[in-house]
UniProtKB/TrEMBL annotation, chain B:
It comes from Agromyces soli. This is ABC transporter permease. Signal peptide: none annotated. Keywords: Membrane, Transmembrane, Transmembrane helix. Pfam families: ABC2_membrane_2. The chain crosses the membrane at residues 43-65, 85-108, 136-162, 182-200, 207-226, 260-282.
Length: 315, 287
């Protein structure tokens, strides 16, 4: 497809079918099936150790699935005639020889596909690496390493971008830049698959979310739906007649938590219903506040049972 | 957007690439060539090999030309004179092979220890062409460096011997074959070590393995007081390697084991095992 602006590499779909991968006795991912579509940013969300990186490595053929398969644009990654033109991947910011300069690293990567020096300098410019391009990568900060990884991913002008935790180590400007870059790339019709363990980051960047926990898919839906589903409406009720009110509100689908005297946290009822019931029974109410769980809470609720490495609360 | 402090360009996908990008073996060779010459360790390794070869040629030449064995070298038969000059010129190969072996391991183990291998194999997902590309580039680069070095070493040796009345031509019988054979051996050792490095994937382990094979095995077999140990000796990599260029044109009666050409086959056998093992494991393992 050629437009007036030059070639547009419109995205191919990533299709995973029943992917399973074990490392020794440990199952990294189990029976994953999902699709990542072009023209949108798909977030790949999950706690550390959930299997996100493993899945991404399997997409580009670095790790071999024990069972199942994954294709990009209808073919296994290795079958493409120009793999770097098909998929650009930032899998690990450290996938660079520390003794080589950034520019030489990119030139070597580009040479495999006959990509010219001009494109190398374009991606150096795109990622803001001009000043350090001739320095050896060993001295790079984490953020510069990430930029170099993104530059390498962009080299082949790929139709699919796979970015594993791309904002790790970036300063706030860098984070904003990555967010805008991936939005822009998806807007051009490319497929963008972005992993993160931070819900807040995803909520601002992704259109669609695939949530992974302990190697299995917990949710695969548009971001809005996941947020809505994960957000339980709670109503905070303060009343001098808390006990009486709690008795009146009690029902199988209603959960009431009394955190302190005169304060109820009611889940399963709308604020209006509670207010009406109180009025009908002549009970005074001092506060009636609908609470919305934050995105972070929605995510935690979603993955609560699927966290591999749990941190015990400090005592 | 605010770009006050970021030096990255505001969002754009960048200019479009013409749809001509294509993975090819020629491209892989160019890529590996860029990789080889863009690391200081490679450049240093080759410089050390050159220095060792030339240095050893000087030492050996003075030592032999001044009649180490008490004989007048200028009175020796021409074939013997040629032999002494050649021996001086390629003497450094024995030490150079150790440096080249380390280089061969580092070419690939350096990619594993830094994570570069994931970039390499993402660009060449069929994997074996990446190994083949490395092998070809390493072989050719080492061969060229070693040929030039050996010619220079011969020049030095010939000049020193000339001072003692011994005049040997580069075109004397077997001279070019010997110099070329020594260079070929170094190039083959490099590829052998590349295979070992691919199998072991760690720099320390890979270097220990190749140096063990090159240095330790002959010593161990030499210490075993049994006839079979002595019989095995000529088939060890470094022994066969020395034989393949030091005995070109030698009288078969003076050779206990395989001759030069048979020794070349032995060296190729070692290389085949190493590269085949590397290929199988590279293809099978997760990167």
């Amino acid at each position: 497809m050629r437009g007036p602006g030059g070639f547009r590499n419109v995205g191919g779909m990533i299709t995973a079918t029943a992917l399973t991968k074990r490392y020794g006795a440990k199952t990294a991912v189990h029976d994953l099936s999902f699709e990542v579509r072009p023209g949108q940013v798909t977030g790949f969300l999950g706690p550390n150790g959930a299997g996100k990186s493993t899945t991404m490595r399997m997409i580009v053929g670095l790790d071999r699935p024990d069972t199942g398969s994954v294709t990009v644009g209808g073919k296994p990654y290795a079958e493409h005639r120009a793999p770097l033109h098909e998929v650009g991947a930032l899998l690990d910011a450290k996938a660079v020889h520390t003794g080589r300069t950034a520019e030489n690293h990119l030139l070597a990567m580009a040479a495999t596909h006959g990509i010219g020096k001009r494109r190398v300098h374009e991606v150096i410019e795109l990622t803001g690496l001009e000043s350090v391009a001739r320095k050896r990568v060993g001295g790079f900060s984490l953020g510069m390493g990430q930029r170099l990884g993104i530059a390498a991913a962009m080299l082949g002008d790929p139709s699919v971008l796979i970015l594993d935790e791309p904002v790790n180590g970036l300063d706030p400007e860098g984070v904003l830049w990555v967010r805008q870059l991936v939005r822009h790339l998806a807007g051009e019709g490319r497929t963008v698959f972005l992993s993160s363990h931070l819900m807040s980051e995803m909520a601002q960047t992704a259109d669609h979310l695939i949530v992974l926990g302990r190697g299995e898919i917990i949710a695969d839906a548009p971001v809005d739906e996941i947020i809505a589903a994960g957000t339980r409406h709670r109503v905070r009720v303060r009343s001098p007649h808390a006990s009486q009110l709690a008795e009146l509100l009690a029902a199988p689908e209603v959960v009431i938590i009394r955190s302190e005297a005169g304060l109820l946290e009611v889940t399963g009822l709308e604020a209006a219903g509670i207010g009406d019931l109180a009025a009908a029974n002549g009970l005074a109410i001092h506060e009636l506040t609908p609470q919305h769980a934050s995105l972070e809470e929605a995510y935690l609720a979603l993955t609560a049972d699927a966290v591999e490495y749990r941190t015990e609360a400090l005592r | 957007m605010t770009t006050a402090t970021t030096d990255a360009r505001p969002v754009q996908g960048g200019p479009r690439l013409a749809h001509t990008a294509r993975l090819s073996f020629g491209g892989i060779l160019r890529s590996e060539w860029i990789k080889l010459r863009s690391l200081r360790s490679t450049v240093w390794s080759y410089l050390i090999v050159v220095a060792i070869s030339l240095g050893m040629a000087v030492l050996m030449s003075f030592s032999l030309a001044n009649g180490m064995s008490g004989m007048d070298v200028s009175a020796a038969p021409p074939a013997e004179q040629t032999g002494m000059v050649l021996q001086s010129a390629v003497f450094g190969t024995y030490f150079g092979q150790l440096v080249i072996a380390v280089l061969g391991v580092l070419i690939i183990s350096g990619e594993y220890t830094t994570g570069m291998i994931r970039s390499t194999l993402s660009a060449v997902p069929k994997r074996l062409p990446a190994l083949a590309g490395k092998a070809v580039v390493l072989f050719v680069a080492t061969l060229v460096v070693a040929i030039v070095t050996n010619l220079a070493a011969f020049g030095i040796a010939a000049a020193i011997f000339a001072g003692n009345g011994v005049h040997v031509s580069l075109f004397a019988e077997n001279a070019l074959l010997t110099l070329g054979g020594a260079a070929l051996y170094l190039a083959l050792v490099a590829v052998f070590a590349l295979g070992i490095g691919t199998i072991i994937r760690s720099s320390a382990g890979g270097i220990a393995a190749v140096l063990g094979i090159l240095l330790l095995l002959p010593t161990v077999f030499g210490l075993i007081p049994a006839e079979w140990a002595a019989d095995v000796m000529p088939y060890l990599l470094s022994s066969a390697g020395m034989t393949m260029f030091m005995t070109i044109g030698a009288d078969p009666a003076t050779l206990a084991g395989p001759n030069a050409w048979q020794s070349l086959l032995v060296v190729l056998g070692w290389l085949a095992v190493s590269i085949a093992g590397a290929a199988v494991l590279l293809k099978r393992r997760d990167a």
